Amino acid sequence: MYSVLLVITLILACNGAVILSDYHHDYGLAFGHAPAIAISHAPAVIGHKEVDYYTPPKYEFQYGVADHHTGDNKEQKEVRHGDTVHGEYSVKEADGTIRTVKYTADDHNGFNAVVYRHGHALHPTGHHHQAIGYGPIAVLH
């Protein structure tokens, strides 16, 4: 329905548009030498694969990085069933702690995250350099 309204809007907005039709009763819109835009009530086809817009989405993934040379350590995993998403990720912070975030998102509760911090913060000790001064600063009034 929305695709039909979009095409009608395009027809009214553009001058010189030509309406095309073929033996399948699908309609198209062409501008000059541009290819026709197919409009049909059949499921969308990308290449040779049909796209289903009505089945609830479902996926699951995870990945991780553990680079001992650079110290880059992180992980993420996520699961989606319909309109509900659950996941978590962890990142190694600069102070040596691990931050883990566990989250959920759905239509009823929105996005909710709980953050955990594991380990103790380590701060490097080093030499403290004394600032070099050139004497008192004169203030003129």
From TrEMBL:
Secretion signal, residue range per the UniProt entry: 1-16
One function term, GO molecular function aspect: structural constituent of cuticle
Taxonomic superkingdom: Eukaryota
Pfam families: Chitin_bind_4
Lipid biosynthesis among keywords: no
GO cellular component: extracellular matrix; extracellular space
InterPro entries linked to this entry: CHIT_BIND_RR_consensus, Insect_cuticle, Insect_Cuticle_Struc_Prot
Keyword Glycoprotein attached: no
Keywords of this entry: Cuticle, Signal
Protein name, per record: Adult-specific cuticular protein ACP-20-like
Annotated organism of origin: Sitophilus oryzae
Gene: LOC115877498
